[in-house]
Design goal:
It contains 9 helices and no strands. By secondary structure, the protein is an all-alpha fold. The longest helix is centred in the first third of the chain and has 32 residues.
């Protein structure tokens, strides 16, 4: 399984994004830096899943012979391992996981695959489910991580206060305010 390759690729991507964030903050592109930081947080979650999958694969390789010789019922001591692999297969791009899913489809049927993908038996660990769930991180987390990055990488950047906006954010709100005034003035003129 190519988990090690995916891990190295993900670590390199995080490193590159950290550099990009630094450049964006220097250019006062705070909103873009926040989006990239959220992306880093998602990549870090992926790294946690990769670590967990590595442990799952260690369990699996000791029992692979048992799987090959199993009848149409999956051995109980392999169900959690296989459910985890199948659950992750569509979310993590590793060809071997897809092949394992296809093998299980042939060996144990579509109900087994459906149960694994939906985690209807609750065999996939909560940590994997949470770390694979997509969604934006809270602003407090993103801002905290940006402040940490600025500190660690010695970047000179002054963060905007919660009530004030600087740089591109200030320009955005200024443009929005001007547009609203223009619409209001045009409507006033038409009503007279």
């Amino acid at each position: 399984i190519k988990l090690d390759q995916l891990k190295k690729k993900t670590i390199k991507e995080i490193s590159n994004k950290r550099k990009e964030i630094g450049q964006q903050l220097i250019k006062n592109q705070y909103s873009m830096a926040k989006m990239k930081m959220d992306n880093i947080i998602q990549l870090e979650k992926l790294l946690k899943v990769i670590e967990l999958l590595s442990a799952v694969y260690d369990q699996f390789k000791d029992k692979v012979t048992k799987l090959v010789y199993a009848d149409h019922d999956c051995p109980d001591d392999l169900k959690a391992v296989l459910h985890t692999v199948i659950y992750c297969a569509d979310q993590i791009e590793i060809a071997e996981m897809q092949k394992m899913k296809e093998f299980c489809q042939i060996k144990f049927g579509s109900l087994f695959i459906s149960a694994a993908k939906n985690n209807s038996n609750g065999l996939v660990t909560k940590s994997i489910i949470e770390n694979l769930s997509m969604g934006c991180s809270p602003d407090t987390v993103i801002n905290g991580r940006l402040r940490l990055l600025v500190s660690e990488d010695n970047i000179e950047y002054i963060f905007p206060d919660e009530g004030n906006n600087f740089g591109e954010d200030q320009q955005f709100f200024s443009d929005l305010d001007n547009m609203n005034k223009s619409i209001y003035n045009n409507n006033q003129w038409q009503n007279n």
